[in-house]
Amino acid sequence: MTTDLAIETRGLVKVFGGHRAVDGIDLAVPAGTVYGVLGPNGAGKTTAVKMLATLLRPDGGEARVFGKDVVRDADAVRGRVSLTGQYASVDEDLTGTENLVLLARLLGHGKAAARARAGRMLEAFGLTGAAGKQVKQYSGGMRRRVDIAASILNTPDLLFLDEPTTGLDPRSRNQVWDIVRAVVAQGTTVLLTTQYLDEADQLASRIAVIDHGKVIAEGTKGELKASVGAGSVHLRLRDPEHRPEAERLLTRALDAVVQLDPDPVALTAAVTARGEQGAAEGAARALGELARAGITVDTFSLGQPTLDEVFLALTDKPLDVTKEGATA
Ligand SMILES: Nc1ncnc2c1ncn2[C@@H]1O[C@H](COP(=O)(O)OP(=O)(O)O)[C@@H](O)[C@H]1O
Ligand SMILES: [Mg+2]
């Protein structure tokens, strides 16, 4: 197995009472990157992470972290990873400072060093003002930040972030995203699980989409989107009277349904990839036809499909993030 992989799994399986929560997962996570594991509730994300973090024993297949087997070399793996997420190590009754000092002491730092480290982390995470408050008084966003601070007290080589922003407001999510970027900039590999497509899109360089314990798609963001094979063009015409003709030409050129936007000069259409031809070529051809017909296009944009559309195309069902625990 290659050494520049932070994680490598083959046919990883976990069975709970006959139910295959993780059903033969193959992963290759390059070191030094954020790798996104995207899937709905109950997909098997936490179970997979727990096996990789040596907290659960696999029932089949194998998994290596920096080349070390998670079962045979569990101690070596534990020394290099850290986990934060749906269950956290911080004590609600202790203050932010007390929690971080305690954890730093457990990690072997001396008293003064532990206090200094805790202080620096709280400052870096914007928690200095709340340092003396009990964690149970923290907001959701503060709580998540102290969780992450606790998990990176000793800079791990691999950090598991299990749904780090589930339930957070947009501002807190952005703060967590900034932290993730900073952690990766320090050289840590991050395995991030998420139900949020935009989160994987923002942070991850590669993404595995999982559903019912299986990887249903894997690749870079671009590859994933390309495999779904579509983009959408949006254009605005100079003259609203040209719109019916533009609609007719676009429908033929793109072989797609053209939507008429409320704005009387605007049209939107999906670009279907045809064979080797990419979305950009299809869009360019359509623009050429409009020009030949004497229709002036004022603005034009070609967008890649969102990850929401990717998931819908891959699973035939939309990602429903409102059904917390419904699939469990
Ligand atoms: N300790 C457990 N005992 C029994 N079933 C479990 C246990 N942990 C998870 N499961 C089941 O395994 C499946 C995957 O769960 P999980 O890994 O938590 O999914 P996710 O993190 O993607 O939401 C779910 O059907 C869940 O109910
Ligand atoms: Mg989970």
Automatic annotation (TrEMBL):
EC number: 7.6.2.2
Primary location recorded for the protein, binned into one broad class: membrane
Ranges where the ABC transporter domain occurs: 7-237
MF (Gene Ontology): ABC-type xenobiotic transporter activity; ATP binding; ATP hydrolysis activity
Subcellular localization, as worded in the UniProt entry: Cell membrane
A cellular component term, taken from the record's GO annotations: plasma membrane
UniProt xrefs under InterPro entries: AAA+_ATPase, ABC_transporter-like_ATP-bd, ABC_transporter-like_CS, ABC_transporter_ATP-binding, DrrA, P-loop_NTPase
Membrane topology: Peripheral membrane protein
Keywords: Antibiotic resistance, ATP-binding, Cell membrane, Membrane, Nucleotide-binding, Translocase, Transport
GO BP terms: daunorubicin transport; doxorubicin transport; response to antibiotic
Keyword match NAD: no
SUPFAM superfamilies named in the record: P-loop containing nucleoside triphosphate hydrolases
Family, per entry: Belongs to the ABC transporter superfamily. Drug exporter-1 (DrugE1) (TC 3.A.1.105) family.
Name of the protein in its database record: ABC-type xenobiotic transporter
